[in-house]
Amino acid sequence: MNFTQIELGRFGAQEYVAVVTLMRPDKMNALTKIMETELREAFARLDRDDSVRVIVLTGNGRAFCAGMDIDELEVLPPDDISEMAWMRAYDMNRRADYQSRYSYFPGVRKPIISAINGAAAGLGLVLALYSDMRFASETAVFSTAFAKRGLIAEHGIAWLLPRVVGPGHAADLLLSSRKVSAQEALSMGLVERLFAPDTLLDQTLKYAEDLALNVSPRSIKVIKQQLGESPFQTLTESITQANREMFLSIQSDDFKEGVAHFMERRPARFSGR
Q1: Kind of pairing, strands 4-8 and 63-65?
Q2: Is 65 helix (H, G, I), strand (E, B) or coil?
Q3: Percent of the chain with pLDDT over 70
Q4: Are residues 179 and 245 in the same domain?
Q5: What are the coiled-coil residue ranges (predicted)?
Q6: Are residues 168 and 223 in the same domain?
Q7: CATH code (residue 63)
Q8: What are the tens digits of pLDDT across the range 181-228?
Q9: Are residues 147 and 225 in the same domain?
Q10: Alpha helices of 21-111 — where are they, by DSSP H?
């Protein structure tokens, strides 16, 4: 892979934590179709790898991702946006909602944490929003960018952004395309945590390692699925799913280990089964 790098075990968590880095720093990690394909393949590979329990997505250099490369955008054929290759099923056992060009992040069974090291604009912000959590550098800057380019709210962001920051903030960010500081992003709930630029990745990896080592991988997989399904469910449907999953979890090896390590006052040794 030329523009997307996968690094395992960077923080020493026995390769349970994978770091996926966008590697086009001279272009502020602006996306190309090659990068899109590489990123999708990287996530598919990590999803299949049972040794990987948490994924961290970040950018190399001073930006997280500045959106689609403008050179490619200018020559993009009008029908590219609906090309079937981008709508192929990421996994036929997942919701169709999570099988499109960028919405496949929630279909990945491991938590995805975006470590936003710099500018996240346009599609860069879309990638961050489809992640399960967003940790950011105190110097990061955010922008939807679309309206200032004569574009619209792309790739489901009009559905997703109000659920993250609320309808008013979403309308403000989408209509104005203004730049938002990391501090304002934290205050509106666009990101969960802020860190100094030189500690962002280490702090994100510490959190990821805690998930990887101290929480049941099976529980994480099921809870992520529950969170992904809930926006499309009634309360009754959500409760029914939870009851079914609770019955199965009580029979799992991870439940037995969860009780054992608590009673024996020792570190957990979850298997994910």
Answers
A1: unpaired
A2: strand
A3: 89
A4: no
A5: none
A6: no
A7: 3.90.226.10
A8: 999 999 999 999 999 999 999 999 999 999 999 999 999 999 999 999
A9: no
A10: 33-48, 70-74
